[in-house]
Amino acid sequence: MQSRINNLKSTIKITVFGILFATSWGIQVHAQEIIGEVAKDTVVTKDTLSVEMDSIQLKADTMEVKVDSVKPFQRIKIDGVAAVIGENVILDSDIDIAYQQLISEGVSAADVSRCELAGSLFENKLYAHHAVQDSIEVRDAEVNSMVDQQLNYMINELGTIEKVLRLYKKDNLEDFKKELFDINKSNRLSEQMRTKIIEDIEVTPEEVREFYDEIPEAERPLFGTEIELAQIVIEPEIPDEEEQKVVDRLHQFREDIVEKGSSFATKAVLYSQDPGSKPTGGKYTLDRQTNFAKEFKDVAFSLQEGEVSEPFKTDFGWHIVKVDKIRGEEIDVRHILLVPEVTRKSVEEAKRLIDSVRTSIVSGSIKFKEAARKFSDEKETREDGGQLINPTTGDTHFELTKIDPILYDQVSKLKTNEVSLIIPDQDRQGRKKFKLITVLKRYDEHIADYSKDYLKIQELALRKKQINAIRKWQNEKIMDTYIKINGEYRDCEYSGNWLKKEK
Predict the structure, then answer these.
(1) C or N terminus of the chain, fewer CB within 10 Å?
(2) What residues does 337 pair with on adjacent strands?
(3) pTM of the predicted model, to two decimals?
(4) In whole angstroms, what is the distance from residue 94 CA to residue 31 CA?
């Protein structure tokens, strides 16, 4: 039984690792995705491809490219092909880069081998290949939006697009964007294929009970200390005159752009307070399903190409938007965001209010949850008395050793129903706010108990069933898919039968 539990843990670890790897934008894949395209980045080895064309002769035995044209004979070193999965090529350099990326992110070299990493890449490409075969669609607007956000993040970190291109060894922005697009699209296809495999899988109470009973009592998992939390958030009010200053300034920007011909992109770079799009002139690509504020999309999709909106408000602040290009259901937009300032007076008033609320709770004149419903400015938690939902598990329990380090510092020493001191915080625009936190319930570290920990045990049972379904699907699809593994990667031991050995 212990070996089965260890195998389950190992499989879960590898599966999660594969998902995390597949969704990491930092891993730069240099392969062309489709074998049929022979381009400057195409890779050939002596035991994979041999292609002859009128203008190009690929000499596989020397791993060189000979170009027969008006130009002199050229010899170019090309990358090795680690594997071909369906129509997808995985290069040796892809695995090298992925490995170095994980190490740079703090993953210990002892925790992952090149063989494990290669196996995860193989799985990702297998999912993506069959997602295409199953007609799973990924919207270009969604992928373009992801690319825009990634580029904006990179530029924000490094300062200029030129520095980004130098870091990733790219000659121009368009080629880099195309590569990011291909990577993101492949990853999204892979994610959706995995989701499709397990979306209808459920576990019955009987299956949960069987799963629990199969674990010997001495080997049942140990669950760490957990807590349920609630909070009250007080945000300083923004004076009307500060709101009006921002609206007036945006009206002036609009007049300069529409009537005087000023560049929208330049003004966005100079004045927008959206750090994500500011470096690229406020640019985003979106469609109706893109995860943007509803008010933003409503305005953007009401505009004609080249039109600039009037100022409008979202939870992020005040905007003006210009539509650069309309491509069917997809649009390229630019926007300028300005955030009204809070005054020192409103900050002091907010602090006095939360101090008064804390005094009332501590004195017993009002319950924490009642105070949250009455005073908290946090819409998401106010109606539930400020109770927090764990974004990872979807329930109200937070395992103390796994919560955010900042939150841990704030709550780890609180007793049940004790109220924290006033905690200074800030919103997504960097404006000050204040909060109080309390521990509603505490669950001490304990061995898994069926009645007390049913939801956790149910989750483990479901995960095991999902992993078994994925493994079964993978084994079947490996046999139905063209797969070629090369070089050192033929000597690896994989959880999947990538080498198609007879059993």
Answers:
(1) C
(2) 319
(3) 0.59
(4) 8
E strands, 17-154, where? 56-59, 64-67, 81-85, 88-91
CA 467, chain centre distance (Å): 22
Per-residue pLDDT tens for 81-100? 899 999 888 888 778 767 76
Residue 94 near residue 30, CB atoms below 8 Å: yes
Q: How many helices (H) and strands (E) does the chain have?
A: 15, 15
* Residue type at position 121: L
For the beta sheet containing 483-485, the strands, ordered from the edge strand earlier in sequence to the opposite edge, are: 88-91, 81-85, 483-485
Q: In what order do the strands lie in the sheet with 226-234?
A: 398-399, 226-234, 432-443, 423-426
**Which residues make beta-bridge pairs with 335?**
321
Q: How confident is the model at residue 112 (pLDDT cuts 50, 70, 90)?
A: confident
Determine how many CB atoms are found less than 10 A away from the CB of residue 325: 11
Q: How far apart are CA 213 and CA 10, in angstroms?
A: 21
Residue 413 belongs to what H/E stretch? none
Contact (CB, 8 A) for 265 and 281: yes
**Is there a contact between 457 and 212 (Cβ–Cβ < 8 Å)?**
yes
3-state secondary structure of 231: strand
Cα 232 to Cα 435: distance, rounded to the nearest angstrom: 5
Contact 43, 57 (CB under 8 A): no
Q: Of 94, 180, 88, nearest to 127 (Cα)?
A: 88
Do 125 and 193 touch, CB atoms closer than 8 A?
A: no
> Hey, what are 323's tokens?
């539509």
SS3 assignment, position 218? helix
| DSSP β-bridge partners for residue 436 | 232
Cβ neighbours for 405, distance < 8 A, ≥ 6 positions apart: none
Give start and end residues of each alpha helix (H) in 170-218.
Answer: 173-198, 205-213
Burial class (CB in 10 A: 0-12, 13-18, 19+), 322: buried
DSSP-assigned letters across all residues of 376-393? ---HHHHTTTTB---TTT
Confirm if 15 and 471 have CB atoms less than 8 A apart: no
- In angstroms, the first-to-last Cα distance of the chain is 24
CA 212, 215, 216, 221 torsion-angle sign: negative
Angle at 414 between CA 411 and CA 415, to 5 degrees: 140
| pLDDT per residue as tens digits for the range 407-430 | 888 888 899 999 999 999 987 777
* pLDDT of 490 strictly over 60: yes
Give the Cα separation of 343 and 359 in Å (integer).
25
